[in-house]
Amino acid sequence: MLYDYDEMLRHAKSKFHLVNLLAKRSRELNRWVGSETDIIKIIPLAIEELLEGKLIAEPKEPPPQTFPK
Q1: Termini Cα distance of the chain
Q2: Cα angle, residue 57 at apex, residues 55 and 60 outer, rounded to 5°
Q3: Closest to 21 in 3D by CA, of 9, 7, 37
Q4: Mind listing the pLDDT tens digit for each residue in 14-65?
């Protein structure tokens, strides 16, 4: 199945962020399924979740900066 790349980019800050977001979700789904043979089905599932708005990228707060005295 082909997916609209521009539509996927609307859910992420950049291409790099998009790839990391989908990879993270795919790993989570793979742990849940428990089989690497289903990876062909897992990645499209992660993409569909992203396009349906079920997968939301929340930015993490950066750690506070501390400067040596």
Answers
A1: 57
A2: 145
A3: 9
A4: 899 999 999 999 888 888 776 665 667 888 899 999 999 888 766 666 667 7
